[in-house]
Amino acid sequence: MQVRLWDTNLKVRLIGEGLYNMLFWMYFPFITVYFSEALGSGMAGLLMTVPPIFSMFGSLLGGALTDRLGRRPVMLMGASLQTLMFVMFAVSPSPWMDYAAFIGIGIGGAIYRPASSAMVADLVPAQSLREVFATFTTANNIGAVLGPALGAIFFFHYRQELLWTCAGVLLVYFIAIYFMVHETLPNSAKGTTIKMTGVFKEQWKGYGIIFRDKVFLVYILAGICALIPIMQLDLYLPVFVINHVPTQALFTWNGSPLMLSSKEVFGWLVGFNGLLFVLFVLPVTKWFGKWKERNVFILSSLLSGFGTFFVGLNTNIWYLFFITIIFTFGEMVRSPVTQSFISRYAPDHARGQYMGADSLQYTIGKFLAPLMVFLSGWVPPMGVFSIILAFALISILLYVLLFRMYEEQPALE
Asked: Are strands 256-260 and 248-253 parallel, antiparallel or unpaired?
């Protein structure tokens, strides 16, 4: 499905989200380092487990509102909240206000995502979902190539300017959604009235039905365990690289070595991870297009789990580049399939709620994944990497159970 043939909604989102994510990768990889320097590493480790809890409630609320208010209003709500929080971050006089703004940015994104994903599912036929989601993944990861390298300069030396730029881009995107994006809420979900006083009661009633879905629950549990290794690129891996990888030469030219410090090594690894996504996520999606979702999920957990575990075996930069290929491909093959699976599985009238509930695997994963950083204060690196691998292996067992419970079908009846 070629981009030029896409609906205008998808084109606007592709450009807007691509620009925002380019800026996102200029600050996000360094946010833990920033709070560690400002508040202490122990406090920062604990504080970073809190935003996912707020994001979880934001995702559930966003999913519920998506099926009641519609996709477009909820996307506007999430984008406007993020814009305001970036302004707050830019003018903040203290690290604690920075932290509050960071939480607010996460909540805004959590509200936005279920509506955004539901809109894609509304507009794209089932057979094209993997390719379209892979295209969005490519756009979102273009910034991951240059973002970390630029962020190492701009976030620490020109933080206010960077944050104001983020706010400005989101404001322009908000305006684009308002004037150019049309509503896609299916007719089966229209006509549902909403009273804000009763929205939470209705919301939890709807999610109660979803969470009695045993197949969906196993899917969420498997996703949480699978994501813990994948999320370590921004959590334990920088801690390990900065503390255990020595300064070394990337290469030597005319007898002059290009030396990289441990922080620069990490920046190069993150940039290489993003470059792999940009170059290969669409080809990989096509290569595995005929694979059953069960096998793709299992392959993803194997590559990301063992790939992350192998990081601890050697500190040579070229070895680390090779291992980055392994765990990046583990993440790469998973991303489009996850979104296409839940898009097919969710019924039309509750698609937003299922998308919101689906994001629980990410928010709970983000809550548990930082615990690897916390454990690293007492457990040696290979012990931490072994725990990470154990989560990947558990996810494989859960995915096997999931697809025994659920036979792949074109759509959920």
From this structure: antiparallel
154, 161 Cβ separation under 8 angstroms: yes
- pLDDT for 291-345, tens place per residue? 888 899 999 999 999 999 999 999 898 999 999 999 999 988 887 677 677 777 7
**Count of residues in the chain:** 413
Confidence of residue 413 (pLDDT cuts 50, 70, 90): very low
Q: Are 250 and 388 in contact (CB under 8 A)?
A: no
Residue 289 has pLDDT above 90, yes or no: no
Contact of 218 with 398, CB cutoff 8 Å: yes
Single-letter residue type at 114: P
Q: Domain 3-186+197-405 adopts which CATH fold? A: Growth Hormone; Chain: A; (1.20.1250)
Nearest to 238 by CA among 392, 394, 48, 110: 48
* Domain edges within the chain: 3-186+197-405
> Count of H helices and E strands in the chain?
18, 2
- Structure tokens belonging to residue 4: 């030029």
Residues in CB range of 395: below 8 A, 6 or more apart: 222, 223, 224, 225, 226, 297, 301, 305
> How buried is residue 409: exposed, middle or buried, by Cβ count under 10 Å (0-12/13-18/19+)?
exposed
Tokens at 188, concatenated: 């089966």
CB 343 within 8 A of CB 129: yes
